[in-house]
Amino acid sequence: MVGALAMSVLFAALLVPAVAEHANGLPNGTCFSNAIPEADRKNLTTAQQESIPFTFLLASWTSAQVTSSVIEILASEIMGYNVAVDPQVPASSVDGIYALLGCSTWWNGTSRGCEDRKIKAHVMVDSWYRLCCTHNLQEVQEKYKEEAPRHGGNMGYLGDAGAYVSEAPRVSAKNTSGLALEYYQSHDANWFTPSQYFSSLSTATWHET
Description:
24% helix; 2 domains; two-stranded antiparallel ribbon; alpha/beta; 5-stranded parallel sheet
């Protein structure tokens, strides 16, 4: 049996659904021809001697869903673990830190519930915590020591995040008023009216939000 995973892990580069239903070309329903059969896969055993699947915390962004699926296949078919997905979806990498710590209401930004902890998820793949919340992870590690999540390593590719302005409004603003929409201070409504170059929020559809 495997221990309780004394530490949870965030895989980061840019920091899972069960893949068993995914169609593929192998007659045994797996991705690898030498996959460990489901009947031979094992659970993790917690410090309280509770047997639980190796559980993934799946973020909502596409890159996380793709890479998490790959890691899940490797964990189940090659490493031989029963895998599961936490039904609660983290809204951000910050949420992921507190979820992997086992806080009871980790999705609540004002009350994480870390005084009542039970680890239910063990891995979050494709976390962007380096862009948003290294201080959160450091604080958790300093306070909770071996219980805290750990950085599991780089995914092997780099990513970036930022705000972008499409070409049409940028050119329109430049040509009509000389306003440089690519410069963030041009969006200060106390001095400028950048909203005139964009669609109204009321006209946006669900697919555009």
